[in-house]
C-alpha cells in the first residue's frame, strides 16, 4: 500500500505545509513508515492562528444549540466510521485494534457528544446582595485557543480538548502528537463534512519544539490546553507566562495502586488490577505503575498477580487474542528498555518480563516489550520515582495505613491513585489523605465525564472535564446592578 500524506486543516481547507517539509510516520507493530505528516512551520501556524482569530467573533455569536448540533454531527460521522478509525489508531500507535474499537474511538465520540450536551445545560451564577443589588456572571469564550495532545490516546485526548473549547464558543488551533497524527487528520476532514465554518477548527500537524512552540507563542492564541510530559508542560508554562495566557496542563504520573489485606481479590478485581498496570502497554497516564501490597498478603498476592501477568499475550495488534501491542516508537521502546536496565542496576529483581519480545511474520521488526514486574526496590529509587510509561510495574510491600500513604504520596507526581479495600472507613480516610487528583476505590479508569480530571504536584495545573473545562475555556465577567 502506498504511503499517504496527511494534510493540515487551515481556514476550512486541507493544505500541505507551506515549505513542503514532511515527517515519516511509523507503524509501531512493523517498524515501517506508512504515512507522512506535515512538518509545519511558523508560517502554517500563523495562517491557522489568523484564520481562528478571524472566525472567532462569528463562532462566539453562533447560538449554543447550533454549535452543539455541529459537534453531534461530527460525533455521528466518526461513529459511522468507527472501524476505520480504530484500525488507523492501532496502526499509528501500536495499540490493539480491539482496544481502539472498545475504548479510544467510542470515548472520542462520547467527548464530542458530552460537551455538545453540556453546553446546552450550562448556566451561570447570580448573587443577590441584601443592600439592593444583584450580580450575575457572564462567561465569554476566550477567542482563539491552542489544544496540544500526546500520542498515547490520540483521538481520545484530542477530542477531550477540542470539544469543550468549541462548545464554549472558542475557535481552535490544535496539534496532535507528531508520533500519532493520523486520526486527528481524519477528524479534520470530517469536520468539513460536518459543516463547521472555515477557521473554527484548525489542525496544524508537526513537531513540538517548532509547530507546538509556535502555537503557544502566537499572540492571537489566548489560552493553551496541553496534555503531555511534565518537561514539555514546564516549557509551555514558561512560554505562556509573560503573555499571561491561561494554561491547563495535564502531565505525567507515577501512580500507586494500593492493595490492603482486606481487599476483595475476586478474579474480576484481580483482572482490573492487572489491567491498571498494563492496559495500552502501560502507556496511559493513569496506569498504576507502583503496586503497593500489604505485607500480610504480599507473597500470596504476588503469586496470583504474576500468574495473570504471565498469561498476557503480546502480539500483533490485529490479533483479537492480543492484550499488549507494540510500544509507540523506537525512541520510546529504547527508553522503556533502558528503564528496565536501570531497575536491574538498582538491584531490582525482574519477576517476569524484562525483555523485548520478538514476533514472527509481519511484526518481526516491531517494538514489543514483555509485561514486566519488578520486586525489591525501595520507593526512593529512580525506578519508583520516574515515569516509565510502559508495561512495567514494581511491587512494593507496606505494613499499615500510614506506611501506605507515606509511600503512595512519596513522589513528585500526583495524578491518580487506586485503592483496594473492603473497609469503608479506611476508603474515605485514605481518599482524603492521598495527594492525587483522582482516587479510585475498588475500581480503575471508571470515568464520569462530569468530574474534575487532572493532577496535583508535577502532574499538572488545572482540571479538565465537565464544567471545569467549560470554565477554563471562558472568561467570567461580573455584572453588578444596583436597584
Ligand atoms: P510530549 O510532552 O513529548 O508531547 C505532547 C505534545 O506536546 C505533542 O503534541 C508534542 O508535539 C507537543 N510538544 C512538545 N514540545 C512542545 C513545546 N515545546 N511546545 C508546545 N508543544 C510541544 O508528551 P508525549 O510523549 O506525547 O506523551 C506522553 C506524556 O504525556 C507522558 O508523560 C504522560 O504521562 C503524559 N500524559 C498525561 C495525561 C494526563 O491527563 N495527565 C494523559 C496522557 C498522557
Automatic annotation (TrEMBL):
Pfam families assigned to the protein according to its UniProt record, in alphabetical order: Aldedh
Residues of the Aldehyde dehydrogenase domain: 21-478
PANTHER family listed in its UniProt record: 2-AMINOMUCONIC SEMIALDEHYDE DEHYDROGENASE
Name of the protein: Aldehyde dehydrogenase
InterPro entries: Ald_DH/histidinol_DH (IPR016161), Ald_DH_C (IPR016163), Ald_DH_CS_CYS (IPR016160), Ald_DH_CS_GLU (IPR029510), Ald_DH_N (IPR016162), Aldehyde_DH_dom (IPR015590)
Keyword field contains Metal-binding: no
CDD domains, A to Z: ALDH_F8_HMSADH
Species annotation: Dyella acidiphila
Keywords assigned by UniProt, alphabetized: NAD, Oxidoreductase
Family named by the database record: Belongs to the aldehyde dehydrogenase family.
Catalytic residues (UniProt): 250
